[in-house]
Design goal:
It contains 33 helices and 32 strands. It is of the alpha+beta class. GO terms for molecular function: phosphorelay sensor kinase activity; protein dimerization activity.
């Protein structure tokens, strides 16, 4: 909303004097009666409350909460709750100005329109499908009937008034995002007002207890209407106040504030008129409602009594017939039947009204049945509680069927069944048509504990079974069957909203309900209410038109006048304040808030005396304007200076002018406050500038003289007296000769002054002054001083004594010559290199040795530093620049070696050494020397070649030694081993041949065999030490063997970790084996370890061996200096193979030896 807030501020009228606060930037009060912050809080409260209401209804509906826990579930339909949630989210998102938020708001508004329109279309077409409650209840109005079961949630349909109001509200939300034209703005506000009035009307009607005028024909389960209307009322208020967040609305009402006044007045007038009209109409409707109910109840009660009397009379007629039948013979029975039905013989009313339709005598003893009369087929039958053994039957007409036991002449017994036609009941049922098209008289009897049986009626010609139990209040007929009397407005068993008067029919067990649809009964009342509302709206519109015609010209002129005055006061840079006689601030312009730092509401809560310091040196006349209590004195126009006091406590000088005037008979004051801080500061600055200029000039060490066009001196500072020995007052107003200066200065004084005066250009000259202290060297700058027209009116001479500088220049020249002679004999090039920020390095000094070093003269290197840098080889240039940058960053000594192209000398190795110094501007200067180290490099190369030859020779020697060991081991093992074996066999043969007969010989032979076996074992050990046979099986096997032998001989725990078979040539495998063998030997001799770990692994291009022990450890540096031949031998083997060796150890902490050699023949190697 930041963008919209900014747009709205810029669109305000130029004359607005209001200080916009953060909340007002969002809701500036265009349509609000209160502040912008309160409007914002109101919108947030409304949206939050409605969001919680809709969410609660949806939650309880989805959770199937019982009614006693969620009474609003039946009061608000799920669709209304969903629409309320959509509307609340739209108001909440109204504070966001992102594109996605605008799209979401439009989508939510369209969803509200669609959901409400579906309800209106369904109610117009009276189309209510029979569907399950979920999820269709969120989209459609359903015919849910009156199902029996637990008192849980069922679908509640949306009310017509709520659907109409929400449809209009959704249209307003969609149009709210398109306020480009005034007609759209007015349409949105009109829709908002219509929604508000519609919701207000519904709420008032429900509050006054005349909600029946809103009930129409709808399926059972429609919402109460007033909760949704109350939510719509709140949402309309929120939308009404939320319109002002749009820049278009703020800009429109800033231009046409009279429209806002007329619109708000008309709306308030409409609310008042509609409220008063509805209140009066509600009282009349309530009285009519009560009269209608009382009339309906009295009619039903009289009909119930008449119905009961009719049944009793018919039963009496049946008993009379039974007496007559018992007295007659069978041959006279037909005559009796015909005589009773003969209208000419009927003399009493009972006989006329209770015609005997049929007669039947059942005599089981004789096994016969006598029937007289004809009746139609039975369509309905209801048993009566009293009289006993009677039934109310429908056989083409209403009949009372009575079963009466009789005893006839002759001793025969049986049962008489009479069917008495009930003409009066038919008349009662026909009289129900007089109530209207939907009027009906319903008679029902209980069938079982859960249902009742109703006789055919006008609405239901068929005899049917109706459930007694249902969700919601019990049916009126159920109350009548329970013996209750009364009148109720409810949905009947057909789902139609009716008003029903109910009660029991005597003690017959029947119940009677006389009902009529509320839509028909209250149609005249609704027409009256509509006439009242239409009349109120018409009168309000007429009043609004008259208000517009009469008030609009006045408000327009008033607003124009106010805008003109505000424009004047707002354009004034001074603070303009109006106060009452008590000093209370009434109005102020923007300059006031800017000057004192208060917001406009804060100023209006203060008195004008609070804006000035209570005591100050310039407030002697304060009593002429403001008394001690801060009240304004009723004096004439007053102007004085005081100290103003800002909100932050700072004080500043002001000029205050107060003028009294009268407004509507009351004394008022206009105070104009002007900040004079700048004026006083300028005056003080001018004074300080003059003092500073005089202090600088009088104390300046340089000579300052002003000379006019006639060569006369206008001013001379004290330095003039010091350097010339002449008094200042003696030379003021005199020329060069008149003051005696011509003998002291060797300069064409007049010619220089005339040249500067004519050309208007500065000129600097050097000359010698012969003063009292001897000759002095002066540098004088002649500057022209111009008048307002640009002409030169005088010349300013600024003379500086440069005697010391001249002497220093001479000393410096001598010092440079001495340095040049010294550095000329230094081998190499002595230099000073300067690197300034953002510039290329340059030489500030180069010795003459540059020519011998690089073939360039020192002057050439000084003049063209890049030319010397270009002599560096391209391969060495990056290292040169890197070392230079590192030295500059850390101020480390600069050290570099590289090659340059030294002219005829060709490729030359040089060594640079320099010391950096940081300059004040952030640059660095190096003082150093560059030496020719070509011969040193050649010597180093020869040394490396010699070492390489020595390494190759050592490797060859080691290979020859290993081959010799291998050859000797094979010879010992093959030749000597075989000879010793043969000797043993021969000795064994001698013992076997002669030992049995010669015990001494046998003992001697055994002794010889023992010696021979020892010799064979020794030979094997010697061969193994020279060349272990395990090496022929691979390095892994050899290491395992060596480790196991070491553990056996030294009782040390060994752990060997080898990843698997490693492909390695014989030379490297033998070398690694020997290294491990030497390492284990050292551990056994010196370490005193109890545990040894051996690890062999490959890392791509290298093979690494790591040996770790937990022995006593040692210092590796001392071991190197002490001449440890074991470690040196290992290092020599590693060096031969081009590998690396690392030793980690410390006294008492064991030792670790790590050796890595390349898997292929290396080009070079090293030892760490």
């Amino acid at each position: 909303m930041a963008a919209r807030g900014a747009a709205g501020t810029s669109g305000a009228a130029p004359g607005s004097a209001r200080t916009i606060r953060p909340a007002d930037a969002l809701y500036p009060g265009v349509l609000c009666f209160t502040s912008g912050m309160r409007c914002l809080l109101l919108v947030r409260f409304v949206s939050s409350f409605c969001l919680l209401l809709g969410a609660a209804v949806l939650f309880f509906a989805l959770a199937g909460a019982p009614r006693d826990l969620a009474p609003l579930v039946d009061a608000v339909s799920p669709k209304s709750a969903l629409i309320i949630v959509f509307a609340a989210l739209t108001l909440i998102l109204g504070e966001l100005d992102a594109r996605w938020a605008r799209r979401v708001r439009v989508g939510l508004g369209a969803g509200i329109v669609v959901l409400a329109a579906l309800t209106l279309v369904q109610q117009g077409l009276r189309l209510y499908p029979h569907l399950a409650a979920w999820p269709w209840a969120l989209l459609l109005s359903l015919d849910v009937g009156i199902p029996a079961g637990a008192e849980t949630f069922r679908a509640v349909n949306m009310a017509t008034t709520a659907a109409l109001g929400f449809a209009l509200f959704g249209v307003a939300l969609i149009l709210l995002e398109r306020l480009g034209r005034p007609v759209v703005l007015w349409t949105v506000q009109l829709l908002c007002a219509v929604c508000f009035m519609l919701a207000l009307m519904v709420v008032m009607i429900h509050v006054m207890g005349v909600s029946f005028v809103l009930d129409g024909e709808a399926p059972a389960g429609r919402e109460a209407g007033w909760p949704a209307a109350a939510a719509l009322l709140l949402l309309s208020v929120g939308l009404y106040f939320g319109v002002s967040r749009h820049a278009e609305a703020r800009a429109y009402y800033a231009r046409y504030e009279d429209h806002k006044i007329i619109g708000v007045t008309t709306f308030l007038l409409l609310v008042t008129a509609v409220g008063a009209g509805l209140a009066g109409a509600g009282i009349l409707l309530r009285q009519s409602y009560e009269v209608s109910q009382q009339t309906l109840k009295q009619t039903q009660a009289s009909k119930a009594i008449l119905f009961h009397d009719t049944l009793i009379a018919a039963q009496n007629q049946a008993l009379r017939v039974a007496r007559l039948v018992g007295e007659l013979e069978g041959s006279h029975l037909r005559s009796l039947f015909l005589g009773l039905n003969d209208s000419r013989t009927a003399t009493d009313g009972a006989q006329k009204n209770y015609e005997l339709a049929a007669l039947e005598i059942i005599e089981p003893d004789l096994g016969r049945t006598v029937a007289l009369g004809e009746i139609g087929g039975e369509t309905a039958r209801v048993a009566l509680r009293e009289p006993a053994n009677t039934w109310l039957v429908r056989r083409g007409a209403w009949l009372l069927e009575s079963h009466i036991p009789i005893a006839r002449a002759g001793g025969f017994t049986g049962t008489l069944v009479t069917h008495i036609r009930l003409h009066r009941v038919e008349q009662l049922l026909e009289q129900a048509r007089g109530l209207g098209q939907t009027g009906a008289l319903v008679v029902c009897a209980p069938r079982d504990a859960t249902s009742m049986q109703c006789l055919p009626s006008r609405q239901n010609p068929q005899h049917g079974r109706v459930m007694l139990q249902r969700v919601g209040p019990p049916l009126p007929m159920a109350r009548a069957l329970a013996g209750e009397e009364g009148i109720a407005v409810a949905y009947d068993n057909f789902g139609v909203n009716v008003i029903s008067a109910y009660g029991p029919i005597g003690s017959t067990g029947l119940g009677m309900a006389q009902k009529i649809a509320t839509a028909e009964l209250y149609a005249p009342l609704r027409e009256r209410l509509g006439l009242v509302v239409a009349s109120v709206l018409g009168l309000t519109l007429v009043g609004a038109a008259l208000l517009w015609r009469l008030v609009h010209p006045l408000t327009s002129r008033l607003l124009e006048t106010r805008a003109y005055l505000q424009g004047l006061t707002n354009s004034v840079p001074e603070a303009v304040i109006t106060t009452d006689e008590g000093g209370g601030i009434k109005t102020c312009n923007p300059a006031t808030t800017a000057l004192f730092g208060y917001l406009e509401p804060e100023l209006q809560a203060r008195k004008i005396g609070a804006l000035f310091a209570p005591t100050s040196a310039v407030a002697e006349r304060a009593d002429e304007l403001i008394d001690s209590s801060g009240r304004m004195r009723s004096t004439g126009k007053v102007a004085l200076e005081r100290l103003g006091s800002r909100k932050d406590g700072t004080s500043f000088p002001v000029e205050l002018t107060v003028t009294p005037f009268n407004l509507e008979g009351k004394r008022r004051f206009v105070a104009v406050v002007r900040d004079v801080s700048a004026r006083q500061a300028a005056e003080e600055a001018l004074h300080r500038s003059e003092e500073m200029f005089r202090a600088l000039v009088d104390n300046a060490p340089d000579v300052i003289i002003r000379i006019d066009r006639g060569h006369r001196r206008l001013y001379a500072n004290p330095a003039f007296e010091t350097i010339t020995g002449l008094a200042r007052h003696a030379v003021i107003g005199k020329t060069h000769e008149e003051s005696g200066m011509a003998a002291l200065v060797s300069l064409d004084w007049y010619g220089t002054v005339d040249e500067v005066s004519e050309t208007g250009q500065d000129k600097v000259v050097d000359f010698t002054l012969h003063g009292p202290a001897g000759p002095r060297f002066l540098q004088v700058r002649f500057v022209p001083e111009r008048a307002r027209d640009g002409s030169v009116q005088s010349v300013l001479a600024l003379g500086r004594d440069v005697t010391v500088a001249k002497q220093a220049e001479a000393v410096l020249r001598e010092s440079e010559n001495r340095l040049r002679r010294i550095t000329g004999h230094v081998p190499g090039m002595v230099f000073q290199l300067v690197s300034a920020p953002g510039a290329e390095p340059t030489f500030s000094y180069v010795s003459e040795g540059a020519s011998a070093l690089c073939g360039l003269a020192s002057e050439t290197v000084l003049a063209d530093a890049p030319r010397f840098l270009d002599l560096i080889f391209d391969e060495d240039r990056p290292l040169f620049e890197q070392s230079m940058a590192q030295s500059a960053r850390g101020l480390y000594p600069w050290s570099w070696e590289g090659r340059i192209r030294a002219g005829s000398l060709g490729e030359t190795w040089v060594s640079l050494r320099a010391t950096p110094t940081l300059l004040l501007d952030g640059g660095v200067v190096w003082d150093g020397i560059i030496l020719n180290v070509t011969q040193t490099k050649l010597n180093e190369l020869e040394l490396r070649q010699s070492r390489e030859s020595l390494r190759l020779l050592t490797a060859h020697r080691e290979a020859v030694r290993e081959d010799e060991r291998k050859h000797i081991a094979r010879e010992i093992h093959d030749e000597l081993g075989q000879l010793l074996t043969a000797l043993r066999m021969e000795v064994s043969a001698v013992g076997m041949a002669f030992g049995r007969d010669n015990p001494e010989l046998d003992e001697k032979v055994r002794s010889m065999k023992t010696v021979i076996n020892q010799t064979i074992q020794t030979v094997r050990q010697v061969a193994t030490s020279l060349r272990p046979a395990a090496l022929d099986l691979g390095l892994e096997t050899a290491i395992d063997w060596l480790a196991s032998e070491f553990c056996k001989r030294n009782a040390v725990e060994c752990a060997v970790a080898i990843p698997g078979e490693i492909a390695l040539d014989e030379v490297r495998a033998t070398a690694l084996f020997r290294i491990l063998q030497e390492t284990l030997t050292n551990i056994a001799r010196h370490a005193g370890a109890t545990s040894v770990s051996i690890k062999l692994k490959t890392t791509g291009e290298e093979i690494c061996l790591k040996v770790t022990d937990n022995g006593r450890g040692f210092d590796p540096e001392e071991a190197k200096q002490g001449g440890s031949f074991g470690l040196k031998g290992i290092a020599e083997r590693v060096l031969i193979l081009g590998g690396t060796m690392t030793i980690k150890s410390a006294p008492g902490q064991g030792a670790e030896l790590a050796v890595c050699i390349p898997a292929a023949d290396p080009a070079s190697g090293g030892v760490q």
